Amino acid sequence: MRVSRSILAVPASSTKMVEKGLSSGADLLFLDLEDAVAPDSKAEARKNVIHAVAKLDWRGRPPMYRMNALDTPFFYRDVIEVVEGAGEDLGLILVPKVERPEDLATLDTLLRSVEVASGLQPGKIKLEAQIETALGLVNIDAIARATDRLEALHFGPGDYAASVRMPQTSIGTMDEWDDLYPGHRFHYVMHRIVVAARAAGLRAMDGPVADFRDEEGLRKSCLLARSIGFDGKWCIHPGQIEAANELFSPSEDEVEWARKVVGAYEEAAAAGSGSISVDGKMVDAASIRMARNTLNLAQGPQMPHKG
Ligand code: COA
Ligand code: MG
Known about the structure:
Mean pLDDT: 95
Number of strands: 10
Strand content: 5-15%
Strand order of the largest sheet: 1-2-3-4-5-6-7-8
Number of domains: 2
CATH superfamily of the largest domain: Phosphoenolpyruvate-binding domains
CATH architecture of the largest domain: Alpha-Beta Barrel
Bound molecules: coenzyme A, magnesium ion
Shape: globular
Number of helices: 13
Helix content: 40-55%
Low-confidence stretches: 302-307
CATH topology of the largest domain: TIM Barrel
Distance between the termini: 16 Å
């Protein structure tokens, strides 16, 4: 599975930011054709995507872009033009505002046709889906299983808040509304996304912090997301990447504890014992599963897909 502690959003209309994004330390990055690009600039931005995917160095990452949603007039061109123009090098398409499994089935069918016409292996191009509307959340389990192309579910906090009419003055960090609510206002949707993703064998990505100067808010947001199982976080500014990479990696203490637990448990299992005590805490088979997650994560980025 890919490591994606950070995923940088880069407006596809800015060739300068595309260059900067590619040379950043982000585990993944996508060129955005959706909300970061004004309607009149979409056609030009699409050309930038084709150029960047086919010609620029993605440094081992799978080339990726975000198309416009299926209910927009941009959808079919975003798919057909980019896949015809750069399908051979393209790895992933991020799909915003997925609401029904049929959305991904439609996209799968269209992609298959373009892939075959372009001499590409059908199913080559993989998808990631944003859950950011009430309807998308209601249908999340079916969406997660809609196509074998799907690799990840992403949370879109701004659009989600608008969709369910949650008032919000800052995206991804706490505001005065959060002071009123006895709990985390996004707990339900965030945990729901992680559970649906894990049940379907997908990665789970948390959305961005819009206030890119709020370092403390970003760290808290990363840790909250990691605490409930997210693999990584969106970054909308290069200054956010380092914190995401750090905080979605296990700390030295976590790795040390995991090694200790695995070592002690293996010794005990060899001696025929199921649950044991390490530093005064019970350790059993569930502890080993958690410890192995930590050790796998500690191995760092592995990018199987060469772009
Ligand atoms: N990707 C790549 N480079 C970026 C970047 C991004 N997302 N955001 C900023 N940069 C670059 C800037 O171009 C600037 O480069 P320079 O030093 O060579 O001039 C540098 O990082 C510092 O940027 P800064 O001046 O602090 O911010 P800005 O005012 O240029 O940009 C935003 C602020 C919010 C407009 C910009 O970060 C952005 O467009 N983010 C992505 C928005 C997006 O994709 N939204 C949709 C998904 S939520
Ligand atoms: Mg959105």
